[in-house]
Amino acid sequence: MSAAIPEEIFKKVRQIHIRTSHIVTDVLAGQYESVFKGQGIEFEDVREYQPGDDVRNIDWNVTARTGRPFIKKFVEERELTVMLMVDISGSQHFGTRTRPKDELAAELCAVIAFSAIANNDKVGLIVFTDRIEHFILPKKGRKHVLRVIRDVLFYASEERANDIKDRGTDICTALEYLNKVTTRRTVSFLVSDFMEKPGQDFESALRIANKRHDIIAVNISDPREKELPKIGIIELQDAETGETVILDTSSSYVREKYQKLSEERVEARNTLFRSAGVDSIDINTDKPYVNELLKFFRMRERRFG
């Protein structure tokens, strides 16, 4: 990272660490581990065949070299790799409650990352807009996770806002990049508001990525993206394109049309997730995110438990 990181970013990291410690150790204790139990088994070694061993595990190459039957030994693979894929495009700076969507995304990532390292898993980071902005290789440890959270906050900060103000959201590019930089299966949390430009289609990329990885879509939204208040004439600006539109919110037709379009967009997105076999978590800036995380973990535990 070439740019100097403001002290304000480090202050926010410390605040997030304090806020999330209780959530990770008390509220979500055991939930993460019970849901993400590792990826199965991996090869460890070979040993001589013994009566009763499964013949399907015979290592024919070693058997041919030695002239005696050997079988493969396997061990449970506990270690997971968790990738945080974080959208920092212009629309993520929006927020009408206590904080914007990007800061909420950073805190949510902190909870996931600290839960992962408590389970001895690796954590990596992909920050994206309509291009890849930043990448951190998956590693273990508290110090590494603090760096991950610091970088999420930095790349989404006001100091970087001018650098990304004209950049949109390209989820397809992010998913393709994930497949390029990871050789092993990961649990990847795709954190975004999924507000791509009309005509963009990431369905194919999502299906391909979800076959190689466990993709979990985390949608972050604000109440004002779903319905308009009755406050008269307002000007709305698209945070990613700069386009503006004047609306008369005193008109019930305008408010109902806005709400209907929002509901259709959400339904189309959820239909896509279900079709691609991708689980999703809906996080709102006006509601506690912990409740939604717990609901997600319990749903996964019922399914795979």
The residue ranges in which pLDDT falls below 50 over 5 or more consecutive positions are none
Q: Major sheet, described briefly? A: 6 strands, mixed
Identify the overall geometry.
elongated
Arrangement of strands in the largest sheet:
5-4-3-6-7-10
Strand content: 15-25%
Q: How many structural domains in the coordinates? A: 2
Helix percent reads 40-55%
The multimeric state of the shown protein is single chain
CATH class of the largest domain: Alpha Beta
Alpha carbon gap, first and last residue = 41 Å
> What is the second-level CATH architecture of the largest domain?
3-Layer(aba) Sandwich
CATH topology of the largest domain: Rossmann fold
User: Averaging pLDDT over every residue, what do you get?
Assistant: 85
Features:
single chain; 305 residues; alpha/beta; Rossmann fold; 6-stranded mixed sheet; 10 helices; 44% helix; 23% strand
